[in-house]
Design goal:
- Helices cover 61% and strands 8% of the residues.
- It is α+β, with helices and mostly antiparallel strands.
- The chain has 3 domains: 239 residues, no CATH class; 185 residues, no CATH class; 64 residues.
Amino acid sequence: MRLSRLIKIVRVVFGYGLDEFLLGHARVRGLGKLIQALLSGRDLSAPRAERLRLALQELGPIFVKFGQVLSTRRDLMPLDLADELAKLQDDVPPFAAATAVAVIEAGLGRKLDVLFTEFEQTPVASASVAQVHKARLHNGQLVAVKVLRPDILPVIESDLALMRIMAVLLEKLSADGKRLRPREVVAEFDRYLHDELNLMHEAANASQLRRNFLNSPQLLVPEVFYDFCARDVFVMEWMDGIPVGRIDELLAAGMDLKKLSRFGVEIFFTQVFRDGFFHADMHPGNILVAADNRYIALDFGIVGTLSDSDKQYLAINFLAFFNRDYHRVATAHIESGWVPKNTRVEELEAAVRTVCEPIFNKPLSQISFGQVLLGLFETSRRFNVEIQPQLVLLQKTLLNIEGLGRQLDPDLDLWQTAMPFLERWMKEQIGWRGMLRNLKKEAPQWAALLPVLPRKLGELLDQNHAELLMAGYSGLMWEQKKRNWWLAVIAALLAGLLLTWWFK
């Protein structure tokens, strides 16, 4: 089976002229010319990006999904390829309803009529990994039942094995092979795809996002019913709404498009700077609009997480960029550790200025946050920086949000909408509020450490004493060590008093 699959892949690769990606290295340029001569009848008039997209569509669902993942890696992919691959959509025929029922009953260990009073045999959506049916629980609750495609794992493992082979060939035979890091990209896809094959992973993501936005006036997240969830079955609250991309229907329903546009930006920045946890697949197919003008989020297979240092990097860079403080942008890159410490600040500052300054020829309402990030990533790449995957995912999501927001309201000013979030977050992180919050966060560790701290310091002092005596250090050094010890004890006592006051 793997051999026949490999033969098909080779046929598609050469049929669409994708050998130009594989045979760009000087060592095999002659082979590339020979293949072109032998296959001279091929129609290669379409741009290379379009031919790549068509080839992935012909190779089937797993390769389509791989193309979707590639479209998010704009730090690695040329922009023409990333833009074209972003057009890939899952368009997969559904599998039989009887098969879906068998998967549900096997996964949940109960018969369908015990689980649901109603179950629609025709799926409402079908994708490469799963399909969704509408059903009703015995308590009357309408639900969406997501069912994993049966026997998909062997197909995925087979295609992944072939992708690894192709990645090695690309790395060795393409002029850009090493820069594109194809083996790393395939490994990332492997992790992402196996996460998606466990629907409990998606259920947990949905629950977290719902908890973060419970009672929100802007976003609805369906409830997860864990009694009806398993690795290959995911049941959540059914949500009615209008797909956000259907502008005419939204207008006919009396929706406030300007408010929706602003909500989208505010929801995104709330996820990023308040929660550090964001829905990373916010394309129009995954977003509905409820009757009360709130967004409804669907499909939680892909989420991103950000550390406090990630958030600080983003806030500093955005604020510095819009203040045209390119020196601060450069120092933020170096302080974050993503640029080598020996990088000359002035050189990086000049590179950032070259990327960013032309953007200010446009009105603020036309400046793209996503393009700003992309420009910074490209500048960083020149300085041998490996961009963090979570930031690339965030940049892709931000581009989606911007595109959606400006589709709803062409006059949307993202800077005016985002500025309060950035300023509020910086105030919370810097100063006494941030110090007290961090101290409260670390309180359990301090509570456990304080009682044993004098003993630990005493043991360390005795050890240092013995080492100093053996090394023949002067009495002056010994006195310094004692002063340091007492300073540590005083600091510990002050921390204890502060904690006592805090928890009164």
